[in-house]
User: Which sequence fits this backbone?
């Protein structure tokens, strides 16, 4: 039997205050790197937080890397 997704449950889980704050911080980091390096440098790439802390948007903690590299360096989820 195929797995049936519960879209209402997924939508509700993505709207928690913690998830919204994390999303805002990721967007803020991207805007900072665009301002610092330029839009052309960030286009098609991702802004990586070296210490995995999305609320730490210091310039020492941010770097621009490819999407593939960012996906491979992520820690395992529990």
Assistant:
């Amino acid at each position: 039997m195929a797995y049936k997704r519960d879209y209402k449950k997924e939508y509700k889980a993505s709207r928690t205050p913690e998830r919204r704050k994390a999303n805002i911080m990721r967007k803020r980091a991207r805007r900072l790197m665009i301002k610092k390096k330029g839009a052309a440098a960030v286009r098609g790439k991702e802004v990586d937080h070296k210490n995995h802390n999305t609320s730490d948007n210091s310039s020492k903690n941010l770097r621009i890397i490819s999407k593939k590299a960012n996906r491979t360096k992520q820690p395992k989820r529990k």
Q: What stands out?
A: The two ends are 26 Å apart (CA to CA). The mean pLDDT is 89.
